[in-house]
Design brief:
The protein contains 13 helices and seven strands. The chain is mostly helical. The radius of gyration is 19 Å and the shape is globular.
């Protein structure tokens, strides 16, 4: 297993192979189980009767389809991407979910970005307004699905939906809601060392912060790896939209903590603080982090930070592209990326593939491909000089 940054030539070769494999896996999924939105595999199979805990992943399959449509230019992929986006369209009015960003940013915002179709943007705007209805005025946070007193660190990945909707509609009140949630998360869920709490618990009537809690980490005061990956990526995304330096600082502190705590291969366990964790890998956290590091490398204002984050993303991908993680040499496995964990406590999707892991992994590979293609005649050289 790799512990160093792979060469550009190796990375590009494996990336091309992995993207072809990903297209095959996605095609088989939607052909075998049309209009089905899986969250995680069981014994490597997407279709099963296990409990999903909560339905928050319906945008990732559509997001994978849009990546396939972008990369191939084929009308078949484009038709599938539009179809799966349309299947979730009415959830733009879903006031029960704090995860609307996961649904509409990979799908309907992508649709608008590619076509300029204002009707697609209107769907994104409505979804952002719907999510903002979960705002608690006293505590200045977006409520999680758990309770009015609760907010999650992963809501930061949906915050760009609110801020983008506010900017597209010139809605200053909506923009304030988005920024206030970011600052509340910054104050109460991001610790001084860049680690994160999974959940913050407030007095819903007064807004008083009460405690840190967790659902998927080891303990309330420990460091759930996927939560930190969500935070570094989410704060990077909102910084790109707002250019608020406080948000960039948070993203970089979370990124630095991730690099400090994670083994040399770039793939963390489910929780860094858990003694003798039952499994060594949580590959979906690594996939999120890889995509997040690539994004943050482009946002960082200090050149040395950009170099560090970009090279670290390549290190993570160098590990995830090996047969230990990429399911290309595992007959019958229907996902793309192995060794992910959805919910360790509930025993859901443990050491399996998960839809968000596959999506952010493929998204990172697409970004690496774009960086290489930007150079034209010598893509490997371009990749070698992107962060130096």
């Amino acid at each position: 297993m790799t512990t160093s940054v792979p060469t550009a030539e190796w990375l590009l070769s494996r990336t091309k192979l992995a993207l072809t494999f990903a297209e095959e896996q996605v095609r088989q999924l939607i052909t075998k189980h049309p209009d089905y939105f899986p969250l995680f595999t069981k014994d490597g199979r997407w279709f099963h009767e296990s409990d999903n805990w909560i339905n928050w992943c319906d945008g990732f399959l559509g997001g994978l389809l849009w990546i396939c449509a972008r990369s191939t230019g084929e009308t078949w992929w484009r038709a599938q991407a539009e179809h799966y986006s349309l299947l979730i369209k009415e959830r733009m009015h879903d006031e029960t979910s704090h995860d609307l960003g996961f649904l509409f940013l990979p799908t309907w915002k992508t649709w608008y970005d590619l076509t300029g179709d204002w009707e697609a943007c209107e769907v994104v705007i409505q979804a952002g307004r719907t999510l903002a209805k979960r705002f608690n005025e006293k505590g200045r946070y977006i409520r999680s699905f758990i309770a009015p007193e609760s907010t999650f660190v992963d809501i930061m990945m949906s915050l760009p939906l609110i801020i983008y909707a506010a900017q597209q509609s010139d809605d200053k009140a909506l923009l304030e809601i988005g920024l206030e949630h970011c600052l509340t998360t910054r104050r109460y869920l991001i610790r001084g060392d860049g680690s994160t709490a999974h959940e913050g618990w407030f007095n819903a009537e007064t807004g008083e912060f009460i405690k840190e809690t967790t659902h998927q980490g080891w303990r309330p005061d420990s460091s759930w790896a996927r939560g930190t990956a969500w935070a570094l990526y989410g704060f990077s995304l909102v910084y790109e939209l707002t250019k608020d330096e406080r948000l960039l600082d948070v993203a970089q502190r979370c990124a630095d903590f991730y690099m400090l705590k994670t083994p040399e291969n770039g793939v963390p366990p489910n929780d860094w603080e858990e003694p003798s964790p039952p499994l060594p890998f949580e590959s979906s956290a690594a996939a999120i982090a890889a995509s997040g590091f690539l994004h943050l490398a482009k946002q960082a204002t200090a050149p040395e930070k950009a170099v560090s984050y970009g090279m670290y993303a390549r290190k993570i991908l160098g590990t995830l592209l090996t047969p230990e993680f990429l399911a290309i040499d595992t007959p019958g496995w229907e996902g793309i990326l192995k060794h992910a964990i959805y919910h360790q406590r509930h025993g859901l999707g443990v050491d399996e593939s998960v839809m968000w892991g596959d999506y952010y992994f493929v998204l990172a590979l697409e970004e690496i491909t774009k960086q290489a293609q930007a150079a034209g005649s010598d893509p490997a050289q371009a990749l070698n000089t992107t962060y130096v």
